């Protein structure tokens, strides 16, 4: 007797393994979180999407985190937040190798339009923290681009249906806000400098600058390793040397040297100077204006 084709498709769909990533242990973690989150949120749940290196590539099971975004229909009240915090606390106390390697944010769908009040607080968790509420960071716009163009669906509709297109000028403004803040902190906040001088933090800053420059030039996003490779080729000269050295020494203990600090602060200033939107039809994508007074040469070829 021939098998009913619609029934066959239905059975195949149900029996298909849950595999949003090529990593079985990561999929098991995601499956567990998805079940708990959906049970907790009920009809408020709209979708769950992978971001970070699992979405952009270059995921390293030995060092990368599991980054995901959960989309809800409205803001989360205190009672629901407390229950969600318990879910994360229980997982952090587990024997899973991923117990302290979860980074997530719970965001209502209107905030995916990337323009949200600075005073709004959303549940989020970072590596080594418990779930907390805080405003979105300045770089949220780049996360929106990641979700829209590269987000891996764990559950829910395709991400491009939730996130609107991002205007390039908004990207320039966000990059300027990030680099301006870092420069201000370098001048006025000794605790920021203490953090920045640690090699792992220093590498984070340098690679973030590479990602900002990549996004400004291409109006897209990429992973930190790929952005670093692109920046070394595109910028050349001392900037490429700075990036290469930061990558090579990122796992070393101790602090950067005084000369490395000065070069890196100059790199922040350089990135800030690229944040002014180019005149329409005056500057093709991928080109930067060499800043006046910059003593470090740039090789574009």
Let me know the average pLDDT.
86
Q: What separation lies between the terminal Cα atoms?
A: 67 Å
- Kindly identify the CATH topology of the largest domain: Beta Polymerase, domain 2
Q: Radius of gyration over alpha carbons? A: 21 Å
Which structural class do you get from the secondary structure elements? Answer: alpha+beta
Q: What's the architecture of the largest domain, going by CATH?
A: 2-Layer Sandwich
- Regarding CATH, which class of the largest domain? Alpha Beta
| H/E topology pattern | HHEHEHEEEHEHHHHHH
Strand content: 5-15%
- Total separate domains: 2
Q: How does the overall form come out from the CA principal axes? A: globular
Largest sheet: 6 strands, mixed
The number of distinct β-strands equals 6
Q: CATH superfamily of the largest domain, please?
A: Beta Polymerase, domain 2
Would you identify the regions where 5 or more consecutive residues have pLDDT less than 50? 1-15, 282-286, 289-301
Q: Which strands sit side by side, in order, in the main sheet? A: 5-4-3-2-1-6
Number of continuous helical runs:
11
**Helix proportion range:** 40-55%
3D architecture notes:
It is a single chain. With 301 residues, the protein is α+β, with helices and mostly antiparallel strands. It has two domains: 16-161, Beta Polymerase, domain 2; 168-273. The chain has eleven helices and six strands. The chain has helices at 5-15, 24-41, 53-56, 78-92, 140-150, 168-188, 190-196, 199-218, 224-235, 237-248, 258-273, and strands spanning 45-50, 66-72, 102-108, 122-125, 132-134, 152-155. A six-stranded mixed β-sheet has the order 5-4-3-2-1-6. Strand 4 and strand 5 form a beta hairpin. Helix 6 packs antiparallel against helix 8, helix 6 packs antiparallel against helix 11 (258-273) and helix 8 packs across helix 10. The longest helix has 21 residues, at 168-188. The protein is globular. The termini are far apart.
